[in-house]
Design goal:
The chain has a single domain (2-152), classed as Nucleoside Triphosphate Pyrophosphohydrolase (Alpha-Beta Complex). Helices cover 28% and strands 35% of the residues. It is α+β, with helices and mostly antiparallel strands. The radius of gyration is 16 Å and the shape is globular. A hairpin with a 2-residue loop joins strand 8 and strand 9 (171-180). The protein has helices spanning 2-9, 12-23, 84-96, 100-103, 152-156, 188-201, and strands at residues 36-46, 51-58, 70-71, 74-76, 104-109, 123-132, 144-151, 161-168, 171-180, 183-186.
Length: 202
């Protein structure tokens, strides 16, 4: 795996990101904090044309506030998860079939985030950044209808970022978003991507 990931580590931006996450881990509450906890994985692989990150489209379920959203793989911490890092690894494997424990390496975490809308579940969500070896095949769970890679070049292009109008509980509101083809990334995932880009540029 060291050879497979070596190309990514050799990139100045990835090396700088790894150093930043190692020296300045994202802010995180203690695990004994009573607030419900969750974790997601921002996974980077070498896509041949440069680094790319994994995004998923969640399935649509009645009553799910994130139904149909474009997101990062992840979910709520379960009692068997010793750490939030373990949550990110388990949820990624369950949702996409990608096994970070076997074929990846976690670089560290970004700052925890909480939903900014009071009607959403009150969670603290820890985003973990990981590198992935090679081209891992997907085995999607029933919670995920699609998984795809987004180049970091596209992610960093200001032309792909814009405010969009989205209807939330019957009211149209403006949200900042990352636009990728037919996909609109907004809300918590958009905030995580912006935090990630800020770390890359630091």
């Amino acid at each position: 795996m060291a050879d497979a990931l070596g190309g990514l580590f050799a990139r100045p931006d990835i090396a700088r990101l790894a150093r930043s996450l190692r020296e300045r881990p994202g802010a995180q509450r203690p695990l004994e904090d009573p607030l419900r906890r969750a974790a997601v994985a921002l996974i980077i692989r070498d896509g041949g044309a440069g680094p790319a990150i994994l995004m998923i489209k969640r399935a649509s379920f009645a009553g799910d506030p994130w139904s149909g959203h474009i997101a990062l793989p992840g979910g709520r911490r379960e009692p068997g998860d010793a750490t939030l890092e373990a949550t990110a690894i388990r949820e990624t494997r369950e949702e996409t079939g990608v096994d970070l424990a076997a074929h990846g390496r976690l670089l560290g975490r970004l700052d925890e985030l909480q939903p900014s809308t009071p009607v959403l579940p009150q969670l603290a969500i820890a985003p973990y950044v990981a590198l992935l070896e090679g081209d891992a095949p997907f085995a999607l769970s029933e919670e995920v209808v699609d998984a795809f890679w987004v180049s970091m070049t596209a992610l960093a292009d200001p032309a792909n970022w814009s405010d969009v109008q989205i209807e939330v509980r019957g009211v149209r509101r403006s949200f900042p978003a990352f636009l990728h083809g037919e996909h609109v990334v907004w809300g918590l995932t958009e905030r995580i991507l912006r935090q990630f880009l800020a770390r890359l540029a630091a």
